[in-house]
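About this split. The held-out portion is used to measure sequence recovery: a designer receives only the structure tokens and must propose an amino acid at every position. Recovery is the fraction of positions where the proposal matches the reference. Here is one held-out target exactly as it appears in the evaluation file.
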């Protein structure tokens, strides 16, 4: 669908995007994350052909966005963070105008406008002036504009910024529904939104790509990078400690009498980096006839991974939100 190769954007001596490459596959929702100034919006603007690149190329369905812009852009629907709406128009008027600008055949405009208004839930607001619509409905009108021409790819830049909780839930559900017929790149400053909606994430910081992977793989990677394992084991503490210390990959062990299980010991094992020793612990303790009652390697949330990768203190309360109504990041690839 989209191939980004060695994409670079420089403004004088400042490199906003630094030789990034990634592929977007059909039928998935991609979360595009990056802290303020990471180069996320610049990258999205280059992918959509809004601005040129200093180096590299972007191909959309095989068409170079810079050399064949008309052919490439036919496959893309773009919703900027601030939708380009005309406030003195009604949604119906605006969408007909936008369809003409996009080169939709005249005989198809009416039915297409009807269809996208139905898809985005703005049919009942068709004759109200856009300036009198709520923020949520304006976003829906902007999304309806992006859907004109039925593009295969939708690029949505902060589609839920400024919406109230009910509107956010509705917009998220709408985006999930669009996945049936569209490949979507979604930027958001709410990390739980990415977790709920997206299949994969693309993360950049300081203009460089730091991750491009599925959420499941990033979670597994973060689990490996968490070097602490907590166990509750039944048996003699001395025997348990000697057994655990002999396991290859164990760095240190701490033990205490379990508060929850009689005759059991709580063990905190620190393992060597990137070594998964859980299976070895299981067999070692089983051979010593010390049954494991529980074993847990704490999994990090998307927010935790993001904070680790960006080296930022966690000052949030509850749902993680990036510094600004902009976004943030996550785990290093490889």
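Reference sequence for scoring:
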């Amino acid at each position: 669908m989209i191939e980004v190769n060695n994409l670079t954007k420089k403004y004088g001596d400042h490199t906003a995007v630094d030789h990034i490459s990634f592929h977007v596959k059909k039928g998935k929702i991609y979360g595009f994350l990056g802290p303020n100034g990471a180069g996320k919006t610049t990258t999205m603007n280059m992918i959509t052909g809004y601005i040129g690149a200093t180096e590299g190329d972007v191909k959309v369905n095989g068409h170079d966005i810079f050399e064949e812009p008309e052919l490439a852009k036919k496959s893309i629907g773009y919703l900027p963070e601030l939708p380009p709406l005309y406030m003195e128009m009604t949604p119906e008027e605006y969408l007909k105008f936008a369809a003409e600008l996009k080169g939709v055949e005249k005989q198809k405009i009416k039915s297409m406008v009807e269809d996208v208004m139905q898809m985005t839930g703005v049919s009942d607001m068709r004759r109200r002036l856009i300036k009198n619509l709520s923020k949520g409905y304006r976003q829906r009108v902007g999304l309806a504009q992006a859907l004109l021409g039925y593009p295969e790819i939708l690029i949505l830049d902060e589609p839920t910024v400024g919406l109230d909780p009910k509107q956010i839930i509705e917009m998220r559900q709408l985006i999930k529904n669009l996945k049936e017929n569209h490949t979507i790149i979604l930027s958001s400053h709410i990390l739980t939104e990415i977790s709920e909606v997206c299949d994969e994430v693309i993360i950049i910081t300081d203009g460089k790509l730091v991750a491009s992977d599925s959420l499941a793989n990033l979670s597994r990677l973060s689990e490996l990078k968490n070097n602490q394992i907590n166990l509750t084991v039944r048996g003699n503490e001395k025997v348990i400690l000697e057994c655990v210390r002999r396991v290859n990959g164990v760095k240190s062990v701490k033990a205490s009498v379990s508060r929850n299980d009689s005759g059991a010991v709580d063990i905190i094992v620190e393992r060597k980096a990137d070594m998964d020793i859980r299976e070895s612990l299981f067999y070692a303790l089983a051979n010593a006839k010390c049954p494991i009652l529980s074993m847990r390697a704490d999994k990090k949330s998307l927010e935790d991974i993001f904070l680790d990768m960006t080296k930022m203190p966690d000052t949030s309360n509850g749902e993680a939100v990036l510094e600004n109504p902009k976004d943030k990041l996550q785990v290093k690839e490889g």
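Annotator remark: Residues 312-334 have pLDDT under 50 and may be disordered.
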